[in-house]
Amino acid sequence: MPKHLVELQKHIHEWISLHREESTDFLRKLVSMPSTQGNEQRAQFLIADKLLELALEVELWEPDGEALASHPYFCSPRNHFTGSPNVVGVWKGVGGGRSLLLNGHMDVVPEGNRAQWHDDPWSGQVVDGKLYGRGATDMKGGNVSLLIAIEAVQSLGIQLKGDVIFESVIEEESGGAGTLAAIVKGYKADAALIPEPTNMRIFPKQQGSMWFRIEVKGRSAHGGTRYEGVSAIEKSIAVIEHIRALEVERNARITDPLYANNPIPIPINIGVIQGGNWPSSVSDTVKLEGRMGVAPEETLDGAKEEMLRWIARLSEKDPWFKAHPPSVEWFGAQWVPGSVDPEHAFMQVLMQQFRAVKQVEPVIEASPWGTDGGLLTQVGDTPCIVFGPGITQVAHYPNEYIEMEHVFESAEIIALTIIQWCGLDEAEA
Amino acid sequence: MPKHLVELQKHIHEWISLHREESTDFLRKLVSMPSTQGNEQRAQFLIADKLLELALEVELWEPDGEALASHPYFCSPRNHFTGSPNVVGVWKGVGGGRSLLLNGHMDVVPEGNRAQWHDDPWSGQVVDGKLYGRGATDMKGGNVSLLIAIEAVQSLGIQLKGDVIFESVIEEESGGAGTLAAIVKGYKADAALIPEPTNMRIFPKQQGSMWFRIEVKGRSAHGGTRYEGVSAIEKSIAVIEHIRALEVERNARITDPLYANNPIPIPINIGVIQGGNWPSSVSDTVKLEGRMGVAPEETLDGAKEEMLRWIARLSEKDPWFKAHPPSVEWFGAQWVPGSVDPEHAFMQVLMQQFRAVKQVEPVIEASPWGTDGGLLTQVGDTPCIVFGPGITQVAHYPNEYIEMEHVFESAEIIALTIIQWCGLDEAEA
Q1: How far apart are CA A2 and CA A4, in angstroms?
Q2: How many A×B Cβ pairs under 8 Å?
Q3: CATH architecture for residues A208-334
Q4: Could you state, in order of their start, the residue ranges of all structural domains in chain A?
Q5: pLDDT band at A429, cuts 50/70/90?
Q6: pLDDT tens readout for residues B290-321
Q7: Residue of B150, B145, B159 whose CA lies nearest to B198
Q8: Residue (of B404, B347, B332) closest to B25 by Cα position
Q9: ipTM confidence score
Q10: Quick one: average pLDDT of A286-296?
Q11: Domain B3-206+337-422 part of CATH 3.40.630.10
Q12: What's the predicted TM-score (pTM) here?
């Protein structure tokens, strides 16, 4: 690392250290705003305000749901976004450098059962270095690390060559319509980073996923003469076991070393089962709902076709399914998978900064879940890597929290990455 | 058959033939009154009126739910019966004969999905000799066959030695609180007949049943890392298969020739499955609800204990169940099983009259479902046989109907049975 970079790093480290309290306060304020789906406005105004303070060019807009709805990658339970703005801030470079898109989502999942929280889910309280509250780790902590990074770089009094584009988007939790809206508006860059909670591992590849609903048919009868009917519950067991076999087959194909530590790289989870409506009747319908993992290099359509072909093969096992084929429907959320070559230049830059700050080798893996990164990479022409503070084990759960120390470390790595990737305007350096 | 009995039969047959239209009208009127749970009053008033017309001693009362609730065989989703009266009519004999209790329930199950009915579910319309409507076969048709039988016997201008007790009860569909209330009031007899839809087969034994609810536990996780959780849906498959093995074991013990034609004499039906609430989460709970058949000679408590012991053995198959034993709960309805010796004198009398009217041997079987007969036999000290017109295949289904011809034939057999069992007062004969 050249000498002046060592000095820059030192300066950045000190600036972040000096502003810990201020940054923590900002995250606490952000967590205290319950930005669940449809309620993102207050938090987004706070972000826009911050971006203006940082002198970025700010755009805040409510995505046009009707226009978006015709996009092949649109996926949302709603088609109007009144009161749910996206915010983008652009820090223009002087030119001649590589641009970087920093993306984080502002929507959080609902707090769930309040009785399971030790404290108010929107408290943002800090105990033993952990900031608690819904969205702390998924992913307001990551978003704040981006803002700290930008402000720390600005504090150097330098100019970058490439643009830095900061996006605070809605709808990640329900299929990425916010990021899609930003793509459609034309925002793109030479690389992107999303600080989802990877526990500071680096994910150049991400599993995609989509939801399915399978309806299994039976024939009703009285429970006392159940042999006169055909139990949809028993038939659904055959369907579940058949899907389990598909999961085995699909995962046997995954040889990517990035999945070496993952027992089931692309799981098929059946999360909901519902059938029958009377204890003493033979059930004539069972509904299964689940999530199909999609490999980084796969397309959603390819995975859908494989599932349909597989389900059709049930009739080879049991003639009942020939006469009564289970229906398969894709519904609800989907996340496009994403894959960036681990040798990509941006990977190298990010890994170098990680080493510089942490003094250890980064862990490189493929993520077991989707993010908006798939959309950026596959649809937005912007190769995206996921790296951020926080752990997924607490995301979506009661007593969600984030280690503030990791927010600051991530911010430092990201600040250095911004400089290295976008390039210093040497005239000033 | 002595000559005067042949004449009595001829007279009864003619009386029933002559009153076909009147009897059909009465059944139509009864079916047109939607006597679902809580709405039995109008139909019961019609019955009470009919019984008064037949000069029976009539008692009509709303069972005292609070008093009944402490009875060990009480089973009902409600504990007050305002607007839901029982009706009993007694035709006193001159003495010296055997008494007979004729029991039928007036409550009907709801009509279900109206779109699946070709006509109004409460029309009572007759097409090609079939009277359509909810409750036609289960069991207003049977009830009317009892009333026809009584009126036909009365038309002979004779006196019986034994009492005839006619009961029109509520709550059969939800566990027998109506019949239990009549038992508690003291109504009993030397034998009983319930004309549930047996398709004119004779059932001296009846399967009992009760409802259970099993909760199977898992451990939640994100679907993308489903291997970090334990799927309650997968564990529930093990529970279902374990219960299937219990069904095999229990049915292997049934050697009663009355069950010879029944592939599963005492089935365990799992009618409802419900688990998980999010497609991309590993489900942490699955609820199973079902109906456990209970053999005629078994007690409900004995069957319950066997189920509990069996479920406890799941931990031998999978240590997960040792740490997280599925809970078993008994809820909703139950029907006490019943068993009368096929050699019982009342069986012989009923079979003789069947042969006399139908000129074929009756089919003797054990019923695959419970009726109020179990309560009469086990609790009410009144050995009860089930025999009646109508087929169970249409009970509880859209477009329920009954063949009027079978109502009249049953009435004829029952009329002769009344005479033979209760005995003619020879002073008049």
Answers
A1: 6
A2: 165
A3: 2-Layer Sandwich (3.30)
A4: 3-206+337-422, 208-334
A5: very low
A6: 999 999 999 999 999 999 999 999 999 999 99
A7: B145
A8: B404
A9: 0.84
A10: 97
A11: yes
A12: 0.85
